[in-house]
Structures are given as structure tokens and as C-alpha cells.
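S.,

Sequence below, as promised.
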Amino acid sequence: MASRSPLWKWILVFPSITQNDTAPDMNLNFDLNLLTILHVLLEERSVTRTGERLGRTQSAISNALKRLRDHFDDPLLVRVPEGLSPTPRAAELAPIVARIVRDADMAIAPREGFDPASAQARFAIGAPDRFNLPVFLPLLEHLGRVAPGIVINLRTTDRDYAIRLIDESQIDMAVGWFDATPPHLERRLAFEDRFVCLCRRDHPLVEKGARPTLDDILRYSHLVVSSTGDRRAAFDAVLDRHGHQRNIAATLMSFTIVPELLLTSDLIGVFTHRTAEYFVQRYPLVTAPVPLEVAPIANHLIWHSRFDADEAHRWLREQIELACSDHLSEGPRGQKLRRGRALETPVRP
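The prediction came back faster than expected:
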């Protein structure tokens, strides 16, 4: 006897589809429940056993078989001493019907809960370069340890570009400073940041130990990091509102060589605190407050609303929020993963 399919559970799932007066396709009248009965008949080769398996009476199965024969204009199953034997047409239909039944069962079966340890998935995340070291470095270490099958593709994005990539389904989510987002995008506050001045420890700006004034900060040439290559950054918009400008000596598209440039020159940089603090922990650099009344920079996590209930998407969003708030779970040696912490285990590319 063939193995019994568990798909009898959805014997009454499909309603009969009635054809309206203008529908040209006569197949719209077909009762899809009949395919389940045909599938089990082909496995059991018995009206009685099919009825028992599906919880239907023998007469109900016989009536269904008659309807199938009428529709296909073929006997489909003929009686032989051993039971019922499929006709060539039924044998031709058997794998097609089995696939339909199997696919339908998969479609209506309850989804299994998301398990990060065994999940296999790829996600693309957009963010400015300033997030890579303080946020995504510890996040990738964390994912490599708790969700090794999840692969992350980081895309450097600014505000408008990130929104466009989400709309085009090129990235799954983005983190950054967004003035406004379209109504079809969800957003959640990830963390707030502020501007600080970053320079070498023996820089004339800070060598006397006093808090520098804004004029002191603007007296030196500045190093700017802009993911778009623009010579202006968010701090320049703040200066504009206060009627000031700064002298920009160099513009970079990433933070890769920022420490070396600051250590070997009198250049200074005004960056967000999280990024600057990462460098202070690893290089002989210091930060100084920027003496301007500026509201905290609100960084948001954004994503398309169609993914709001997706379990894998939601789990990754939670991990990003933890990384942004510096509250990822403990590392492999029982140490809390702090922002800026060097990686201790390999990370999947």
C-alpha cells in the first residue's frame, strides 16, 4: 500500500468556484476538493479505504468519483480483482494531482517558528558609513555566533538613497537620520547621537585642557566623511543655521583612514559621538564637545510595512536595535559585547 498522505486534513479547504455569466473558462466550475479525493483514491485503490481515510462515507466517495469521471470524460479507475486500477489518463494525472495536493498542504500548513540558529537567509541593510564600526561590527560578530546561516550585505546609503532602495526592494531595511519617510515605511527610533570634535591628544585645540569655543573649532581645517562624496555633511547644515561656515580640507567617503589623517596633522573632524568614541578607544585621539545648542540626532530604523510581521525580518530588526542601544547579548567568553569591541570569532562574509 502506498504511504498515506496527511493531506486529508484539507479536504474541505477549497470551496467550489462558481462561474459567472461572463467567465470564459469552464474550469472555474471545478471543485478542487475532488483532487484530494482523486489523490487518495489513486493511493488506496479502494473506495472504502479512501472514505475511511478522509472521514467520508462510501457513497460520498463514489459520487465524487462519478463527478471526476464526468469532468475528465474517462473512467479513471476501473474495478479489478485486487481493487481499483488506474486508466492511462489517471496514471498521467497522478503526479500532477499529487504535486497540487502537496503544494496546497504546504501553503495552508502553520508556519514553523523562526529559529535563528538554523535559519538560512540573506538580508541587505543600508546605513551611513558612520554606523559600520560602532554598530555593525559588534552586530556581525553577534550574528556569526547566534545565527551563522544569516548572511548580511551592508550597503552605504544616505537618507533619500536608502528610501529609494527599500522601495525598489534592493535592501530590506535601513538605519540613519531621516527627516521624513513615506507612509508605507515603518520606522522606529534606534538611538540618539550628538556631534563631538575629534582630534589627536596633543592637538593645540585641546592641549590647554580648556573646553574649546566654536571659534576655536572653526579656526582649524576640517576632515569630512560623506558617503555621497559631497563636501558638506550634516554638521554644515547646523553651522548654516547659526550663520557659520568651516574650512573643509579633505572629504572622504569612509572612515577607513580618518584616524591616521588626524594623528599626523592638525586636521580636526566633527563626527557623531558613537563613531568618535570608537576611535578614541583605539587610537591616541580625544573628543571635545561642540559648543552649539543642537538637538540630538535621532537615528531611526526603517523598513517596508509589508515585512512588518515577517518573523525573520522582525528578529533581525530587534538585533539591530540591540546593537544600536549597546545591549547585545553576552559574547562567547561571557563578556558583554560593547560597541567598538574587536571581533573575537569569525563572521560569515
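The chain has eleven helices and twelve strands.

Coffee later?
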